[in-house]
Amino acid sequence: CTEAVFERVEGVNDVVSGYTGGEEENPTYYQVSYGETSHAEGIQIYYDPEVITYQELLDIFFATHDPTQLNRQGPDVGAQYRTAVFYHNKEQKEAVEATIKKLNDSGKYDKPIVTEVNEFEKFWLAEDYHQNYYELNRGNPYIINIAVPKVKKFKKLFPDQVKEKYAVEN
Fold it and tell me: How large is the greatest C-alpha to C-alpha distance in the chain, in angstroms?
């Protein structure tokens, strides 16, 4: 459901689903989702820094999921569902660490943030049926109960950052 949130962000050109943070070559959805690899399910975001900043993307990320859940997001349990940011350079690493510190110091959450901060190494593209899952499976109970509320939360918290074409969707 993180893919669906970021697809709606003004300045984001593309979001692709995949797997990252593990050692195994060419992981599949089945392997990752059943915890048979050390990878996490993840997304790769391609954005225009002239339109949206890395910090704004971080703010959206931390506001639209629970960064205090260890190895879990909603009903999905296991290390493959860990909260993590994979940075590409020193500036991104510092931004993530500063954001986590600020959020922990703010008292916004009852528990400490457990989001991992890892150097990006390799991203494996997920299978075609796993791309744009939200858009292609609107009637799926998981989408209705988990993803739709996250998209609505994003739109409520960041109304000025919603792409025009998504501003009036349900």
Answer: 42
Question: Is residue 55 a contact partner of residue 94, using CB atoms and an 8 Å limit?
Answer: no
- pLDDT score at 28: 95
Pairing of strands 40-47, 12-20: antiparallel
Type and span of the H or E element at 18: strand 12-20
Residue 58 Cα to chain centre, angstroms: 9
Q: Could you give the CA distance from residue 138 to residue 15 in angstroms, rounded to a whole number?
A: 18
* pLDDT of 73: 86
- Asked if 53 and 36 count as a contact pair (C-beta separation under 8 A), the reply is no
CA dist., res. 138 & res. 114, Å (int): 30
**Residue 170: what pLDDT?**
64
Tell me the sheet residues that pair with 72.
77
- Evaluate whether 9 touches 39 at the Cβ level (below 8 Å): no
Quick: pLDDT tens for 78-123.
Answer: 999 999 999 999 999 999 999 999 999 999 999 999 999 999 999 9
Q: What Cα–Cα distance (Å) separates residue 53 from each residue in 18, 50, 95?
A: 23, 7, 11
Contact criterion met (CB below 8 Å) for 62 and 98? no
Q: pLDDT-derived band of residue 169, with 50, 70 and 90 as boundaries?
A: confident
